[in-house]
Give the backbone structure.
Amino acid sequence: MSDERDVADAADANETEEQRGGRTAVVTRPQRPTGKRSRQRAEADETSGAIELTGDEAKKAKKAKKAGASRGQNPFVYVYNYLKQVIAELRKVIWPNRKQMITYTSVVLAFLVFMVALIGLTDFGLAKLVMLAFGSR
């Protein structure tokens, strides 16, 4: 690497926002991964006994433990807990109002009519082409 770029970077760092044309840098940290390794690490911490959970993590662990215990005991309790969770999730849904529903429905129906016409015309055209090529004369 050359030292010229390092000198240019140092000069850029000393510029004010007006000299850069109003450009500012936004530095963001990547989100914490939630994949397999994170679960394995959590399981390892859990088995070692040295686990300290924050408020949200403790609630999630308690729910998971409760759900796991209910699964082995009684299927009716499992179904009851499942339905309770479904209702809780449905309460979080932001339902569309009448105007939005009419708009969304009309867009879907218009797209449906367009696609049916497109596929129908394509099918008709290809059928005529096949009859021209292979049909009886």
Notes: The CA atoms of residues 114 and 120 lie 10 Å apart. The helical segments are 3-13, 36-48, 55-73, 75-92, 98-134. The chain is about 70% helix and 0% strand.
